[in-house]
């Protein structure tokens, strides 16, 4: 089974909300580590979550971070990602056992990095069936 952030990144790339997974241009998406380049990039992080109520039903959380030299471009990309994941998408990732994404925050500007690039985050709780093979 892949991490929830990994499955989210693959879904976003497949939906065209980001560029290629691990790519180098066109808003590529990464997992767990934001690369220094390219400037315009999306990164997904596993951020814990509440334990599931049932043995096989889990509720992990994922944070999606968007970085760009342009404040507006970063916000627009974050909005496209939000639209791709909300409303919850049922069985959105074949073989990944994700039943849907529920927003736990709105798009949030969190400041600028050391290179003066705008940073935005979105946070989601995932409904995941851990009994399904990935």
Could you explain the architecture of this structure?
InterPro entries: Tail_terminator_phage. It holds the Pfam family Phage_tail_terminator_6. This is DUF3168 domain-containing protein. With 134 residues, the protein is α+β, with helices and mostly antiparallel strands. The protein contains 2 helices and 6 strands, in the order H-E-E-E-H-E-E-E. Strands 1, 2, 3, 4, 5 and 6 form a 6-stranded mixed β-sheet that branches. Strand 2 and strand 3 form a beta hairpin. It is globular, with a radius of gyration of 14 Å.
Short description:
By secondary structure, the protein is an alpha+beta fold. 20% of the residues lie in helices and 36% in strands.
Rg from Cα: 14 Å
* Biggest β-sheet strands, sense, barrel: 6 strands, mixed
Which regions contain 5 or more consecutive residues with pLDDT less than 50?
none
Order of helices and strands: HEEEHEEE
- The strand count comes to 6
Question: Looking at CATH, which topology would you report?
Answer: STM4215-like
């Amino acid at each position: 089974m892949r991490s929830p952030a990994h499955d989210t990144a693959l879904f976003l790339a497949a939906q065209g909300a980001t560029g290629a997974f691990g790519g180098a241009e066109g808003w590529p998406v990464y997992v767990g580590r934001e690369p220094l380049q390219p400037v315009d990039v999306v990164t997904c992080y596993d951020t814990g979550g509440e334990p599931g109520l049932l043995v096989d039903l889990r509720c992990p959380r994922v944070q999606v971070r968007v970085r760009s030299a342009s404040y507006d471009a970063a916000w627009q990309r974050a909005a496209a990602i939000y639209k791709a994941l909300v409303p919850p998408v049922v069985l959105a990732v074949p073989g990944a056992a994700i039943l849907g994404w529920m927003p736990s925050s709105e798009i949030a500007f969190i400041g600028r990095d050391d290179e003066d690039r705008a940073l935005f985050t979105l946070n989601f709780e995932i409904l995941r069936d851990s009994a399904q093979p990935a």
